[in-house]
Amino acid sequence: MFGTLASGELETARLRRDLGFSCGGIRMEGENMVPQGGDGEGEQVNETVPFQIQQHPFEQTQKLVVGYALTPKKKKSFLQPKLEVLARRKGICFVPIDLNRPLSEQGPFDIVLHKLLGKEWQDVIEDYQKKHQEVTVLDPPGAIQRIHNRQSMLQGLADLNLSDCSGSIFVPKQMVVLKDSASSADRAIEAGLKFPLVAKPLWIDGTAKSHQLFLAYDRRSLAELDPPLVLQEFVNHGGVMFKVFVVGDTIKVVRRFSLPNISNCEKAKVDGVFQFPRVSSAAASVDNADLDPSVAELPPKPFLEALAKELRILLGLRLFNIDMIREHGSKNVFYVIDINYFPGYAKMPDYEQVFVDFFHDMAQAKQKKRHCK
Ligand SMILES: Nc1ncnc2c1ncn2[C@@H]1O[C@H](COP(=O)(O)OP(=O)(O)OP(=O)(O)O)[C@@H](O)[C@H]1O
Ligand SMILES: O=P(O)(O)O[C@H]1[C@H](OP(=O)(O)O)[C@@H](OP(=O)(O)O)[C@@H](O)[C@@H](O)[C@@H]1OP(=O)(O)O
Ligand SMILES: [Mg+2]
Ligand SMILES: [Mg+2]
């Protein structure tokens, strides 16, 4: 009986019913998990369902097959029932890639969506792309590799051409420490870096450690840090940051809490090194908080659109997000502090529809190209 299910469960159950389909001979997950039928109570709960599943009079005949190679965590957060249902209506289906079988023997795929670490996978996907140029690989492994290094990640950003825009973009002054962090203090001062400095592991390798950040208040404390790392100037920004999600041509921005400003008094008094809390990944919503509007105001949309467009070209990526902060006291002076490949899109509003449109547009563009040949 539907009445025994909470509204969230009901929604999932209905979605799963819609999901019972096969694709390219591979049975999709979620089949046979549906309570059958419904009653009056069901109707009542239906009102709380955030979106309506309607029986469509016709099914899209054109099929677009998206092969995916994702970690179990990413699969769980990204491949949610709502996404699969909306995709199916547009003739898009998701097929898991079997890592134990040669990739070329699987599919055929129109799109390969992947986020896996390691040289072995990089070689597999590079080789596959060479042999299957008709397949869109999201995204090219070489381009992803660039943003796994916190130095190359931000290279070229300050030179982007955003001249006509209502904001300006910078990256914090930073330097790389490959070894001997004790002697890095002299180099940091020579390079003009001002304390406090944020110490970030140079390589992002998917481990929790690569997201373990430290704040070093004085030159002596640098000796306590483990290279390889980047030392980056801390930029006061009023405790709010902006995550700009990019999916092809679409962008969405959300606010997150961040670290509070560091006063001159604190800079003078405090020494030592402190581990950062992962404030910005917290689920707590900034939107209902009582924030200073000059801090919380979203960056101008045309500015973000121009920035995302330039970054797509510079990075050669279509799926990423940017962490941005507004320099405290400024109107629209922004710093990019981080870029993430295939981030937590489930935290992007309406991500399911955005992805369906993205895949659909891609399929149409391909079809058009084929017809023009
Ligand atoms: N230069 C900086 N100045 C001020 N705050 C910073 C700076 N760099 C990082 N932060 C703060 O630390 C947080 C984590 O830094 P960063 O985004 O570089 O790490 P990360 O581990 O790559 O995060 P993510 O989970 O987004 O991948 C930022 O969201 C921001 O709150
Ligand atoms: O954990 P989530 O799904 O939220 O996604 C996070 C993602 O982890 P995952 O890819 O393993 O899922 C991280 O990837 P790695 O740097 O460790 O490769 C990084 O991109 C974070 O920035 C994402 O958080 P967001 O910035 O979007 O909030
Ligand atoms: Mg970040
Ligand atoms: Mg990051």
UniProtKB/TrEMBL annotation:
Gene3D superfamilies found in the cross-reference section: ATP-grasp fold, B domain (3.30.470.20)
| Residue ranges constituting the Inositol 1,3,4-trisphosphate 5/6-kinase ATP-grasp domain according to the UniProt record | 166-360
Asked whether the keyword Nucleotide-binding is assigned, the reply is yes
Superkingdom of source: Eukaryota
EC number(s) given by UniProt: 2.7.1.134
What's the subunit arrangement here? Monomer.
> Could you tell me what this protein is called?
Inositol-tetrakisphosphate 1-kinase
From which source organism is this entry?
Brassica carinata (Ethiopian mustard)
> Lineage of the source organism?
Eukaryota, Viridiplantae, Streptophyta, Embryophyta, Tracheophyta
